[in-house]
C-alpha cells in the first residue's frame, strides 16, 4: 500500500499521504497542499476519490467529513491564446466570478448545493484555558511571530486560525520577495527578510525552493519611468543594486520579451521567488516542537474586556472551542483583521481587495526573474517545477472579501502576458484562484498597540507584500514585545496615525 500511486499526474503515493496525515494534516485541502495531489493536468479528476478513500481509512473520519477540495477553474486545461482572443469591457467592474461551493476557510458550514452540514475534521476539543499570548491568525505573520517569540524564550503562546494552514492569503500568493520598494523602512525590512529566507530551509528543516532570480520591473508610461528612477536612486543609497535599463538591455535578461510599449526597466538580481506553503508549515512545525499550541479550525466569536476608563484590556478571547484567558492578544489575520477587531469595538481602516492569480502546465525552465509590468499590474514568474505563475491587478475591483474567479481576469492576464511573450499563447492554464490584498489608506501596515485596548497588538495591512515582510517584521515585533524596548516601527505605523492625519505612503505596489 505504501507505494501505491494515488495521483499519477504528480506521482503522489499512499506513503506520502500517510506522512502528511502523521504530521496532523487530515483534511483534503491540507493534504492537497502538502502533497501536491490534484494540481496536475487532470486537476484532481482521477485522484480525488482515491485520496479521499485513503484519508477516510487512515483517519477514521466518516465519509461525509471527507469533503472534496475546492474546484479551481477552468474546468479543463485551456490555452492562453483562447483566453487572449476573448473580449471584455475595460471600464466595467469585475463580476463576482465562479463562487466557491463551500467555505475554504473552515470545513464547517451549510452546503446549500449538497444539502448537508460538514462537521469539523478536527475534533472539537477545548482550546487551552489560558495563555500569556494569543495570536489570532495562523498565516505567515502569526506563525513567524510565534517562532520569534520562542526565540526570545516565550513558550506560553497559542495561535488560532479559523481554517487549515495556508487557507488564507499566505497560501494564495505568488511567492515573490523583493527589496525594490519606495521607502527606506520597507527596503530595510525586505533586505532582512531575504537574508532570513535564504537560511530558512537550513533553520527549519523544510525546502521552500528559494530561487534568487531577481525582479525585472517594466515601465510603459513616463510617470512610471520616473517612479522607478526615483526608487532606484533610493535603493542604491540603501545598498540595493537596482539598475535602470533600456528595453534592449532588459531583453538581454529575458530574450523572449517583446518589450512592446516598454520605455524602461528596473532590475535587481538579488530579489527572489519562493514556494509559500512550506514557509507556513515550517514555522508551524517548529513552534509546536517548542510547546506553542497551533489551533486550526477555531473561530473567534468575541472578546471579554476589563479595566476602567483609559485602561481597558482584553482579558479573554472567546472562540467556538472555548475561551482563552490571556495577557496579550496579537491580531495577525490579514484582510480578515477588521472583522475580528470589530468584535472588540475597534475600527480598522483596512479593506480587502480581490487579487486573482493562475498557474500553468509546466515548461522547461527558461525564465530567470519575476517580471512585472507596473502600469498594468501584470506579474509572472516560473516555478522550479516549471509552471508559469502569474497574476494581474484590476483597478476596477471593488472592495470586499470576494474570492471568486472570473473570465475577465483570464482574458486580461492572457492578453497582457502574450503581448510580452507571444510564445506562451500555446500554454495551458491548469488552475486559477484568488486571494485578498489587505489594503490600508496609505498602502502601509498597521503595527503596534491599539489606543483603546493597550494589550491588543496590531499586525496587518500589508496590502500584497505581507508574506515577504513577515520574517523581518515578526523578528522585530517579538523582540519589542519581549524586551519592552522602543522600536520606531511600532510607533510610526500605529493605528492612531490615521486619526492624527499622518500617512506613511508606499507606491511601489504591484496591481
* Helix content bin: 25-40%
Give the helix/strand class. alpha+beta
Shape: globular
In CATH, the architecture of the domain at 130-172 and 277-350 and 442-499 is: 3-Layer(bba) Sandwich
Taking pLDDT < 50 over at least 5 consecutive residues as the criterion, the unreliable ranges are 102-120
* CATH topology title of the domain at 130-172 and 277-350 and 442-499: FAD/NAD(P)-binding domain
Q: Report the average pLDDT across residues.
A: 91
The level 1 CATH classification of the domain at 130-172 and 277-350 and 442-499 is: Alpha Beta
What's the N-to-C terminus distance? Answer: 47 Å
Report the portion of residues in β strands.
15-25%
Tally of alpha and pi helices: 15
Structural Rg? 22 Å
Largest sheet: 9 strands, mixed
Please, what is the CATH homologous superfamily of the domain at 130-172 and 277-350 and 442-499?
Answer: FAD/NAD(P)-binding domain
Strand order of the biggest β-sheet: 3-21-17-20-19-18-9-11-10
Number of strands: 23
